[in-house]
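Sequence in, structure out.
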Amino acid sequence: MKLAVPFLVVCGALVAAAIVLGALGRAPEVDDLPDLTLRDSSGHRFDLESMDGRVWIASFVSATCIDSCPEAVERLATLHDGLPGDVPLVTFVVDGKSLWPTCPSAARDRRRWTVCQGNSVDADDEEQVRRLATEFLLVADETLDGLKDRAPAAVIVPVDLRGRPQGIYKLDDAAVGEDDPVVAAAWGDAEFLVTLHRHGGWEVRLNALVAALLLAGYFLIRYRLIPAHLTCMGLAGLFTMILVGLGFGYVDFATSVPMRGAGWARPSYFAVMLGHTILLSLSTLAALTLVYLALRRRFERHKAIARWVAPAWIGVCVAGVAIHYLLGLWFPAA
């Protein structure tokens, strides 16, 4: 265990370097979403605060395109149908003249698709909707102005749990077929964000808990508190096995949805992920060896191997926490 301190210092330095380099490719920070009150196509009240703490898809279209851009509306319907079950699609109509927008026939029977706009009578006006698009969701002014001329016909913006835009995709009024790259990209963002949220919490907590148990086990054995040491190490092993099981789900997720960070975010993430995978493989095998040696009461051999295994095992936990932090910080660079 004498090697633990320098090993952890090196791990910390590498993670810190990854964070600094990856910051060059991270998405711009934006303020929290404003509290907007709008009206949907049935005249019902829609509050933007209902999207707080949710992954959702924002889209922007012009009032004229709602009625005269059938291909674009159909592609938005296709987007809605392929989203994870708890991800809503909210379409904001700009340049509207009426009290509330026309509801496309494709949206009438789709429960998670809301079509809304502002007005100057009983809701925030359209200027606030445009401000939402440009200042908070980072849609360029010229892109939003182009909606009047159907260039583009619609803009799609996946939004994460913290209200941050995760990509800006332009949709034209053309039939694309099953392989629609714009729709597929938005699907990928939504699936990634939802899955990251489901995976992240417990795995981060378990990694931190295992690291704490390993450090506690080290200090306990130094003071010859063997029963407490055995308890800590047994729990560390149990929770590590749970993490390995969760890791299979992560691997399935990571191989089905590509990491789309840009700049230094990609090599930083993959470097940490590679180190985590190598250390996990080595420390898992070595930990089983330590259990075998302890059961055979070969304590000197057990102690000699533990000096190498313990810091590697702690490094696995540090890298596990870092992976989720890096993904949450940088995916994708808008």
